[in-house]
Amino acid sequence: MILSNLKLGVEVVGAHNLLPKDGQGSSSSFVELYFDGQRFRTTIKEKDLSPVWNETFYFNISDPSNLHMLVLDAYIYNNIRATQSRSFLGKITINGTSFVPYSDSVVLHYPLEKRSIFSRVRGELGLKVYIIDDPSIKSSIPISAANDSQVHSHSAQTPAPKIPRSEVRHTFHHLPNPNHPQQQQQAPPPAAVHHQGTRYMTEDMKVPTEPQPPPQLVRMHSATMAQPVDYALKETSPFLGGGRVVGGRVIRTDRMSGCTYDLVEKMHFLFVRVVKARELPAMDVTGSVDPYVEVRIGNYKGITKHIEKNQNPSWNVVFAFSRERMQASVLEVVVKDKDLLKDDFVGLCRFDLNEVPMRVPPDSPLAPEWYRLADKKGEKIKGELMLAVWIGTQADEAFPDAWHSDAALSVDTAASTLIRSKVYHAPRLWYVRVNVVEAQDLIPTEKTRFPDAYVKVQIGNQVLKTKPVQARTFNPLWNEDLLFVAAEPFEDNLVLTVEDRVAPGKDEIIGRVIIPLSMVEKRADDKMIHSRWFNLEKPVAIDIDQLKKEKFSSRLHLRVCLDGGYHVLDESTHYSSDLRPTAKQLWRPPIGVLELGVLNAVGLHPMKTRDGKGTSDTYCVAKYGHKWVRTRTIVDNLCPKYNEQYTWEVFDPATVLTVGVFDNSHLGDKGSNGTKDLKVGKVRIRISTLETGRVYTHSYPLLVLHPTGVKKMGELHLAIRFTCTSFANMLYKYSCPLLPKMHYVRPFTVMQLDMLRHQAVNIVAMRLGRAEPPLRKEVVEYMSDVDSHLWSMRRSKANFFRLMSIFTGLFAVGKWFGDICMWKNSITTVLVHVLFLMLVSFPELILPTVFLYMFLIGVWNYRYRPRYPPHMNTKLSQAESVHPDELDEEFDTFPTSRSPELVRMRYDRLRSVAGRIQTVVGDVATQGERFQSLLSWRDPRATALFVTFCLIAALVLYVTPFQVIAALIGIYMMRHPRFRHRLPSVPINFFRRLPARTDSML
């Protein structure tokens, strides 16, 4: 983007429902725009409370780096012609952080705001604001101060497409002003935030003179429900790049002060960059050479690809060897000639590791040098090799793209792409709403009948159909909404096919419409989308002369839009990592920064067999928002050390970070492991459970449910820190709806949400699977919990016991009150009576006493607050005591692949469980219907008794103080057992005799 051509485009579309100010029930309004010291003004629309301008202005941006600090102000005034003055009608303010490129811009209708508390405003203003860098567009001419009094003057405008007034009228008030003084955001986060796509790197690169001690386990945590200690969380106190972590705080040392890559342990690597060679000697009879380079140090080696028949080859490949695994002191870089039987030796270069320089960023990268090749005896020969050799850490710019030797004895660069670390960005998803209204002049294949028509709509692999319409006309009417998911950039077209059902199972195509998604209108609210007629294309080629003779053509009436006001759900709603709407104009500034350090894993289970022993080739995947990260694959290691750090911007505290561990099956025996990466386990961390600024260094057990039961596959050591950049914005988030406003204004059905979520996961998996290295579909599905909605007897029991635990407090209060009523402890009962009579005598103390009691409980519980993020609980999940058949049912395919006898047994069991649930739900409904029957006269005698009781109670309460009535009721409820009866009380008997609607059930 050429910054000198950068301009801010503002299209003033129109206003709606303005306040009348001319004394005649109308206003003559115009708009003034202010941005970066420039001011523009629209024309005046006389006597119109819903004016339409459709005028576009272009502002110069003097300093694009400060764009996020600028604001656009728009004022609407009423022109008073008699006095050549103006009166205020409203204003809006748009922050620079909300400006988007032209391709993302849509028309938004902003509610007008007051200038002061005494202002009276009404209505809204429709604007389209975007950034454009087209050098052919000239800036508009701003208004000078001398022309301020001339309200009829206006600046140069660029014509925009006409928008009908109905579009301006159909608006949705959804945009609060983010630029009020009390809502101004703080300065952008530190530089780390602006580089969230990269890792934080350390500055201290010196090799430690003594080995660092291993992390010390200082505390073990178990969740609220007791489970085995081996499944519990472990808090550690490791040495990281910033110092030792003790109690969530980093204790810095002098030599580590100022470190920015402080959430992982520092690891040293020997980097070797093989750039190119020149004037290599000929090795074949043809006078040429097929060279490749082999970098060797001890038992480790890396191999470049070979280049055919080239004496001046170029590779530009970087190899990284872990310093702690090197057991040699000499590095050899050998050039070889590729041959069918045995590769020929060409020449080599040797380096003493004690002489290799140390590189400390932000120093510039080490410049490669030409080295003369030598033979095996050390004598110089023909040919030179350009190399750069240095020692660095994860901070090095070459680290992400380097081939890593961590545990691989010999892997070439072709396989290195499968083990590199990678940062992925999931595509931005849109909901596509297609409203099929009607068709006109449909011509069936048989002229003697009316068509039995329906419309099939397709986007990529997504296909939906309208209901068939059997109408006695050639103009069928559907008026159905069909919803799809699409991802940017839009690669698929929207294809609509009108088909005629000629016979059962036989359909014939009448016509087709193809609409590119890039041409579909975007909207960020629920404004009305204007319909369009599309001509149906014939499915086969026809005679042009015959086509000219036809007077009419078949047409299809549609409303199509890209809905940007929704958040496209592509993961389980319980573990969402992002809740923002699709339209970037609706995004709010971030509230903080999340930093994750993936340290290591220990005690991993072998996932494959190599050379007769069990091993694993594991990597970690972390997902938060649109950003996915993947660490490098540590080959052949059951205790891998990753030590990679990543950052994310946080927009909502009610989101979840998910970290999964997988085995890279594509490096092993495909015959035994298949082509799917195997899951080792995952960790979920909710951002709202993290204290600001605290470093959480815990070892998380990797728990996976297998068909044989729950298993611990190892432990994953993480370092996590959440830093809040705007405390006011974070507190404001707690008052906002969880999902964007469109989810509540025009909600989807449960069936639609499930279908759209399935489509969204498939699209994300397909896009990420096209990256290099690919993030495979099984990884995306496991991280997104795609099967969380499927039936499971284990989950059903777990949810039932969760529900019971919620009511445990109520049951405990009821039991305590029952003990009071039965006088089991006379002293406690007397004290409760005294407290009760005090509250009855002074009823104004009841609510203060309740709130004070809750305050004291909260203060008391502060001592026992959780000091660690919650983790998987096997007891809560009912994974410890689950029956083997229930596990087999949970891991069964959908639809089932089991025998009919087994399915029959499970179906009968499901019916019994569902019967108990049905009974409970019916009992709750019965109690509610009995309450309704009190005054519905379904039982006339019962209703007459209750109405008479209400009259008597009203008279008694009118002449009797409330304190006396409350005291009598309370003392009666807590009366001594000597005055009690074993039979139910009269009110309970009366209530249970009331009729319910069960009599009407079939």
Please write out the topology.
Layout: E1 7-16, E2 29-35, E3 38-41, E4 52-60, E5 71-80, E6 85-95, E7 108-111, E8 124-132, E9 158-159, H1 165-169, H2 191-194, E10 216-221, E11 233-237, E12 239-240, E13 243-246, E14 249-251, E15 269-278, E16 291-297, E17 300-303, E18 314-322, E19 330-337, E20 344-352, E21 369-374, E22 380-392, E23 403-404, E24 410-412, H3 413-416, E25 422-425, E26 429-440, E27 452-459, E28 462-465, E29 469-470, E30 477-487, E31 493-503, E32 506-516, E33 522-523, E34 532-535, H4 544-549, E35 555-563, E36 592-602, E37 608-610, E38 613-615, E39 618-624, E40 627-630, E41 641-650, E42 656-663, H5 670-673, E43 678-686, E44 695-706, E45 709-724, H6 727-733, H7 742-745, H8 750-768, H9 777-784, H10 793-806, H11 808-821, H12 826-841, H13 846-862, H14 884-890, H15 900-933, H16 940-959, H17 962-973, H18 986-992
Parallel strand pairs: 17-24, 18-23, 33-35
Antiparallel strand pairs: 1-4, 1-8, 2-3, 2-5, 4-9, 5-6, 7-8, 10-11, 11-44, 12-13, 13-14, 15-18, 15-22, 16-17, 16-19, 19-20, 21-22, 25-40, 26-30, 26-35, 27-28, 27-29, 27-31, 31-32, 34-35, 36-41, 36-45, 37-38, 39-40, 39-42, 42-43, 44-45
Helix pairs in contact: 8-9, 12-17
Largest sheet geometry: 6 strands, antiparallel
Distance between the termini: 70 Å
Shape: globular
Number of distinct beta strands: 45
Strand order of the largest sheet: 10-11-44-45-36-41
Taken as a percent bin, the fraction of beta residues is 25-35%
Q: Which percent bin holds the helix content?
A: 10-25%
User: Which residue ranges are poorly predicted, with pLDDT under 50 across at least 5 consecutive positions?
Assistant: 149-224
Radius of gyration: 36 Å
- Give me the number of helical elements: 18
Give the overall average pLDDT: 80
Structural class: alpha+beta
